[in-house]
TrEMBL record:
The lineage of its organism: Bacteria, Bacillati, Actinomycetota, Actinomycetes, Kitasatosporales. The keyword DNA-binding applies. Residues 124-217 bind DNA. Coiled coil: none annotated. Residues 2-116 form the Response regulatory domain. This is DNA-binding response regulator. It holds the Pfam family Response_reg.
Amino acid sequence: MRILVAEDEETLAEIVATGLRRAGFAVDTVYSGDAAIAYLSLHDYDVVVLDRDLPRVHGDDVARHLVGTGSRTRILMLTAAGSMEDRVMGLDLGADDYLPKPFEFPELVSRVRALRRRSARPAPPLLERDGVRLDTVRRTAERDGRALELSPKEFSLLQILLEAEGGVVSAEELLERAWDAHADPFTGAVRVAMSKLRGKLGDPPLIRTVQGVGYVL
């Protein structure tokens, strides 16, 4: 799951991004409305955590842009103004959810996950295939009843493969959905992470490499 945090208070943006990464998300951060529009045009985000009072291009206009382009990216709008009128206005602009500042971080994570489930690429709470069971809510994984201690990145890779339901997933798609914009596509990050995931899944092997195409569970 890939998230964009658009917040002009850089310290707050990085705190939010760090917490979301620890919750298992791939996160990019921007500090202005024009940068948010640029990133949203370049990458396929599941959710944008959007500060309403952004410089250069207002958060309201970013929301209008997303709605106008028919984007499937869900909008969680943040604002220091928490009146009913502000909430109604934000939702009328096309926001899917609204969270006033200050907020409790667990609530933010819960709302982001709820929006992900409502996106055009929904993930059921339980994914199962070939003895592998993934609980996307509790963030637990097991194979044939054996608990798997997966890193957030390994969990994301396994979730994407399970969601493909036996289809091949390219390295490019894995990089797009599980890493942030700073990932170097030439470092072999997908190959290394996939190797670690295979080791934790154990034998017999479950993940097959389709040469020149991608990976399949």
